[in-house]
């Protein structure tokens, strides 16, 4: 009755050894939060939280993914998440879009996870959350607030398109990433969002001191879908930084997608698969 066991082992431990091993386990406790390491050159850093399920909450499996991702530097860590049935959460340190796309070996990580029978899109439990550094949105707190107000307005104003992009069902997004509701202007919409005090289970979570968190998206282990999602968030932030309130309030979805640079090819292709890009359609690939 005094023995302790890990999920992936039948070997018994005393409480002291169990605690020591758990502290050094590949899957950390939910409240684990190391000092962030920033990768890439620039201001707009994005941190990823990707939930994977169905393959088991095994330290041995997590360690395989850590070995791949952290071969040269500590890029990711893994955490327990109570909303996941048989898996865990992969969390990245903050990286620029260029670093995520060109230097971080996400494709290998995803392929290894799929080979171990993990899934993300094909579950009812998994999401992909993207944290964006507030510092990138303005040089002062007031400037940051103005940009965040335009981001919240954009998400509310283009809710139907983003819901389609997200791959979530309406019931699922209402549970994990609900909307605030839109008002006439960006500032009024933002004020309404803050006054509601809806917590963190909203499309744009405003509860964190150093970041804002986009929670709209269903999880995925499809590399191109993952990159397309990062590129979308980058473009939303870019527009919100560069445009005035009036300009962004008058921005239609077709105007937005038509101004996406051609080098965001994964995003443009994904928009086409969802019929969200200037009436152009391509065949959609399988998500995992």
Kindly list the characteristics that best describe this protein.
single chain; 288 residues; alpha+beta; eight-stranded mixed beta sheet; 12 helices; 41% helix; globular
Radius of gyration: 20 Å
- The backbone outline, from C-alpha atoms, is globular
Mean pLDDT: 93
Outline the biggest β-sheet: 8 strands, mixed
Tell me the β content: 5-15%
Number of helices: 12
Runs in which pLDDT lies below 50 for 5 or more consecutive residues are none
How many angstroms separate the termini?
40 Å
Share in helix: 40-55%
Tell me how many strands there are. 8
The structural class is alpha+beta
Order of helices and strands: HEEHEEEHHEHHHHEEHHHH
Describe this protein's structure.
It contains 12 helices and 8 strands. The protein is α+β, with helices and mostly antiparallel strands. Strands 1, 2, 3, 4, 5, 6, 7 and 8 form an 8-stranded mixed β-sheet that branches. A hairpin with an 8-residue loop joins strand 3 and strand 4. The protein is globular, with a radius of gyration of 20 Å. It starts with 14 loop residues before the first helix and ends in a 15-residue tail after the last helix.
Q: How do you describe this structure in short?
A:
By secondary structure, this protein is α+β, with helices and mostly antiparallel strands.
Secondary-structure blueprint:
Blueprint: H1 15-23, E1 27-28, E2 45-52, H2 59-69, E3 76-79, E4 88-92, E5 95-96, H3 97-102, H4 106-115, E6 127-133, H5 141-157, H6 159-166, H7 170-176, H8 186-196, E7 204-205, E8 211-218, H9 223-242, H10 245-249, H11 253-258, H12 265-273
Helix pairs in contact: 2-4, 5-8, 5-9, 9-12
